Amino acid sequence: MEAKSPKIVIPIVVSSIMFIKKKRLMEVFPSRWRNLWTEWQLRLLILLSLTTQIILVILGNRRKYIAGAWIRFTVWSTYLLADSIALMAAGIISTDVGEVYNANGLVDEKYELIIFWAPLLLLHLGGTDTITAYSLEDNELWKRHLLGVVIQAFATLYIWLTAWTSSTLSLLFILMFFVGLGKYCERVWVLYLASEKTFRESIPDIPTNDSKIMEKCKLKQLEGYHLTTHQVFEVEVPDHSANTSSTDESLHPDADELLTAYSLVDMVKRLFSDLILGYQDRDASREIFERLSSKKAFKVIEIELGFIYDLLYTKAKAIYSPWGIARRIIGIFIIFIVLVLFIILGVREIHQRSKIDVIITLVLLVVALLLELCAFRELLLSDHTTHWLIKHKKTNFLQHINRTLRHKWQKRRNWSHSISQFSLLSFSLGKTPVPYFGILKMLGIDEMLEIQPYDIPLRDIDDIKYMIFEDMKNLRDWAKVNNCGTELKDLYGRKGGRTLTRYKREDLDWSVDKLGFDQSILIWHLATEICYFHEYIKPDEISTIVNSEGKRESQNERSAKGLMRQRCNYLSRYMLYLLVRRPNMLPIGMGHIKFRDIYTEVGDFIEEHNGKSVRDEKEASDTLSKVKTKVMLAVGGRDRSRRDRSNNVIFHACKLVSALGEDEKKWELIKNVWLEMLGHAASQCKGRLHAQQLRRGGELLTHVWLLMAHFGLTDHFQIPRSRAIAEAIIR
């Protein structure tokens, strides 16, 4: 047995040596790099955390009026990284706090600055005023953030107590701790207030007239009065003082609209919370908007939507309060004092500390002060502050703010002023395969990269808004004259059927009544595209001027025809965009549209029917306009599994084009069908879904929905107002 022992030990030793060599070979980074990372990781994380705060301050509020995908991705990634980076840095400081003592048992001076970064990270975790939630779902996570506040507060206190010295830096630590803790608590409080349940509960119930009368009666009875009742008729005169008074435009370019918007803000909050409204709100709102022009009406709506955005996605609820203003003033003062004391301390003791850490600490304090000052400047320039100053007649102070803080080129915007467009015909002819499509499909981002919307020119948006406003404003009068219903279901409940009846085209009812809304949008869109390109008038041939209301007025007969076609095309492509990219905003029960299959099949059909590849929309529309619909039933294809729905769309679109004919009056019909479909889609979308779009630059559909509500065209008005009330007679 003893002779065999060496034979057993030798292979074990050899294996161990080979394992050690293998482990060394697997070391990707040399020790010098690892040591460098160990030394710099905390510094890099601190600077990266500061960078995320700067990005969020700059872009956090701009996403409500910029609709580009680049800003959504930047804000989304920065928002997610901000907390993670700050927590990682705080964790490293907490882990290393046990190593701050030197051989003499005293806190090593080179670690004092690193310990001082802990409360500054707490300040970063408090977030910025411009963004507290990326989406509405983030507001529901307020409990998670509340737990984070408790944990980080105790962790920061643990660091302070462990590394406590009698130096000035330890005193500055506790000052910054209270500033950071207050800001972090404020963030959690705002998230709680913006959560769905709390936001809804914060809106007071509508007091009915009967409840007011009974309350007064009970009070009089308690005072010893004898009460009797008799019937009287109530005539309510809405208060429109906010709209009738004219305010000096030097104070604010949209001062009257601002006052009007804030007088209706309670109604708007109830709409976004899907709560019912009283008829008093309807009558007051309708009377106000019937007196407004198109431009002023949409400006009021923009201000209202900006207010809702601030409540749901920013710290507005805390900012515009005595506590919020006081916290910012105190915070600015404390950070400034800490910065001054640190500079004095740093100059005196710079030789005892790392110069790099001193510079980083200075940068952290200076940027923190600048961000707080920028936030306070935005507070002073906000619509909330302007409204308060105008309402309380503090005009001199408002003028001073505008002169000193507001740049002449700076204009406050509340939405993107863009309308995204999709063209089925253009996609069918011009799409090229996306590289690595299979991999992208596995990742679930194939459609996002393959289908990108584009926007109409800015100058045309006011023209579209004017057309929508005038249609809604005059619709109820038309309905009364023609003995039609004036309720929402009568005017916008038929998905285009009311317009067909109005123009005596009941023969086209099959295109809206017998098909789903998604099918109707697809069919009418493709038919509009075919008619538009078949009778195409180039945009440079359309000569128009824009009036003060934003309406484009044609200069000649050909321009008038081209302008009408262009308006119809804009509405058509916007509705298809909603169907493809925002289907959740359309009526419940609509199926998921596989847009790729549809536009691919349309392109295949055009190529098969034309006998060659087609890349021009006019040539393709000429081909489709000549197709006999009976031929469509026999059309075959390479992929029968996807042809049923796509073939049905092509068949019905060609049938609709044939039925519309060549008469120029068809364009007025097409325009009004799209306006009715737009109103139907807006009325069916829930308030919370509209609120989700505010963070993406806003949607025209949301503006249309709110405009309809102000004209009384909504299902939210469900509280009957008693016309007969009891009046107390005191004897």
UniProtKB/TrEMBL annotation:
Instruction: Give the UniProt keywords, A-Z.
Output: Membrane, Transmembrane, Transmembrane helix
Could you list the residue ranges that cross the membrane? Answer: 40-61, 73-94, 114-134, 325-346, 358-376
Keyword match Kinase: no
Q: Which residues form the DUF4220 domain?
A: 76-427
Entry's Pfam families?
DUF4220 (PF13968), DUF594 (PF04578)
**Top-level taxon in the UniProt lineage:** Eukaryota
The UniProt entry, under InterPro entries, shows:
DUF4220, DUF594
Q: Which residues form a coiled coil?
A: none
PANTHER family with a match to the protein in the record? OS01G0798800 PROTEIN-RELATED (PTHR31325)
Designated name of the protein:
DUF4220 domain-containing protein
**What is the native source organism of this protein?**
Castanea mollissima (Chinese chestnut)
